[in-house]
Amino acid sequence: MATVLETKLLTVEEFLHLDDGGAYTELVRGRIVEMNRPYTSHGYFMAAITSLLGNYVREHDLGRVVTGDAGVVTERDPDTVRGPDVAFYSYQRIPKGPLPKGYWPAAPELVVEIRSADDRWKGIIQKAGEYLAAGVLTVAVVDPEALRVHLLSADREVAILNRDDELTFPDILPGFSIIVSGLFE
């Protein structure tokens, strides 16, 4: 459940330097939205997926994997900053070397969102649409309750993978592969 906290529209830059008082927030069309903390199992799946992707990306020297709701700017004027559960940035989008300060200047190629039991599909689809419009190539929505992964991209139909299906990202992470049920172990 999200709660809108501000009436004045904020910019990305103002949001970046805002003291959130320890609350979990996103900036949505210029307004601060306070979010509920995810369940512990959400954190488990986030860590597992980060480990799987991070190990593969490091082993193949492809880029960087970020987690922990690291901010991604999805819209400007009014500004929106979303916090994906896991995201992959290739070295083509964020080159090797020192990390950029603040929110990174490019969208990640891949965003993974983990669906919590109280997440509504309407909100998930809206957020996925923002990521895609910002330049994300694929949004993977991992649904631990249904043991499925929904793959959304700007130029393909939605794909729904069940527990025995193979999850791949051939255009983003060539060679990466896992059976969907492996995400939920």
Structure description:
This protein has a single domain, classed as tt1808, chain A (Alpha-Beta Complex). With 185 residues, it is α+β, with helices and mostly antiparallel strands. The two termini are 27 Å apart. 21% of the residues lie in helices and 34% in strands. It is globular, with a radius of gyration of 16 Å. The model has no long low-confidence stretch (mean pLDDT 91). Strands 4-7-8-9-10-11 form a 6-stranded mixed beta sheet, with helices on both faces. Strands 1-3-2 form a 3-stranded antiparallel beta sheet, with no helix packed on it. Strands 5-6 form a two-stranded antiparallel sheet.
Radius of gyration: 16 Å
Total number of helical segments? 3
CATH topology: tt1808, chain A
Low-confidence stretches: none
Q: What is the architecture at the second tier of CATH? A: Alpha-Beta Complex
The structural domain count equals 1
- SS content category: alpha+beta
Name the CATH homologous superfamily: tt1808, chain A
Oligomer: single chain
Topology as H/E string? Answer: EHEEHEEEEEHEEEEE
The span between the termini is 27 Å
Summarize the biggest pleated sheet. Answer: 6 strands, mixed
| Apparent shape | globular
User: DSSP strand (E) fraction?
Assistant: 25-35%
